[in-house]
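ERR on first pass: missing label on line 2. Operator R.T. fixed the label and resubmitted. Corrected input:
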Amino acid sequence: MTTRTVPSGRVAPDWLVQSEVGLCPCGCIGKRKKGSFLAKTLDGASHLLRQAMSSEDVAGQPGLLQRLDARVKLVTLVGLLVVAAFVRTIPVLIGVYALTIVLAWASRLSIAFFVKRVWLFVPIFTGIVVLPATLNLITPGTIVVPLGTWFGHQLGVTSEGLHGAAIIVMRVAVSISLVVLLTLTTPWNRLLAGLRALFVPKMFVLVLGMAYRYLFYLLGSVSDMYTARKSRTVRTDTEVASGRRFVAASAGALFGKAHAMSEEVYLAMVSRGYNGDTRTLRPARLSGLDGLWVAACLGLGLLVIGCDRAFG
Amino acid sequence: MPSDEPAREAAIDGAAPPPPRAADAVLECRDLHHRYLGRFPALAGVDLTVARGERVALLGANGCGKSTLLKVLDGLLFADRGSYQAFGQAVTEDHLEDEQFSRGFRSRIGFIFQNSDAQVFSPTVRDELAFGPLNMGLAQESVEARVADTLAMLEIEELADRAPYQLSGGQKKRVAIASVLVMNPEVLLFDEPTAALDPRTQQWLMELIVELGRAGKTIVLATHDLDSLHLLADRCQVFGEDHTILAEGRPGDVLGDRELLLAANLVHDHPHLHASEVPHHRHVHDAGHHHAPPG
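pass 2 clean. output:
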């Protein structure tokens, strides 16, 4: 190997002081390939980070639900979820759903985003499940959409089946809307603190909060590791086997990193007097608005149940 | 703080500071030895005495034992051999199991870690600041008042309800410092305080350390940043790469001793290229990479 002495006295191999040919000198463009599963997964991870950041921004806006105490919101919205689960008439469920849209508007959420977020999941999780229940094989009744015959029996969608499916779909839509309202208008840290109102132990809330906090730290580390690999990947990165090797190696590295970090975090806690007892700041006092909201939710719950009885 | 005034005045006058008297000493280490996993040496016979109100810089290259010594001073790590006394009492694993001793010790010594991510672990900045005072057993009202005052003092009120992952590196450092200052410790330990910070945050932090020193806090900081040494420290302890103390002295004396700095791997000395010529003489680069003739 040819060597050359550089000013520092170290010896550099000849190839290191020559430039490499990068792109084809004729300037032609190569064949395009789609990214690997790895790239897509990590893109998803960074998207999750961005989404968490933006949802914290939304939760910080001065809307109606944002002004409520997290504990009050958590308890009342769980209460409304239970009420929605008991409703058996479609018009009442549609009315409650419309109310969630009004609340989203009053909380300065984008209505299009809110509706899309709810209705994206409803067909996936509920539609597929309730579809068979609309058939006369599962729910006997008047066939409104005939689908032919099956082993000599008439097959079709019944009006009773459609009614039952519509109730389930609307119930799920209302439930998801309430959960989305809660999560979009409450920062995660307050939501976790609010869990104490549901008698979740302090230590559990503390561990959950720290897990959520360091999830972002580790996600950042994964992204950095992948970016470092990508910056040194010359060929198109679509090989599944090498992707799997990277995932295994980075999982190991991440485990080590998480372990080292956990030790340092523990030392930082001990340094500030932690001795195993969990002490937290007393939650803020409830405001008049919180009281009004509780009263409104109680009234709404009773009204919904009353209307359901009247229509049913 | 009357006890540290002679030392500070002597440093300003240019005279050598008097060595700390045993009566003034708040931290006193004798012949500390420590090996990680029983194999990797970190401290090899380190002596250190820190007087009340004094600002001591631990200088040394990476891996020489500065951070290990700070962890020993904070009672997070225990030496394999040697003794350590804080405020006149021996600090041992056994003594720290005593709840009263532990609470007193932890409230009097605060440690600002190099990695702010490890120190800022609570869901919000407000919770982070409240963590220490709550563990000290202060009443809720008192904790809330202290948190509000500290947020205002470090001008981070707008960060109070933010989550740590929403903060920049500089903001995390401010929160980490606030989370320790809120406990009002007598002694502050800083591990590489200015590392990986932008120039403005570095300047802010240096000014804060100077102000804390003026307010009478005892400060021990580990660093290899020589540029700001004269501002931050009254006295320096120079670590060698063999994990022993090579020298002790005023910042001016230490910075003036090129042979000592070279031996401690705090500056480097090498021939280098000027345009296309390799000069025959040698140059010394100091921490700021200002070329200077060898001393």
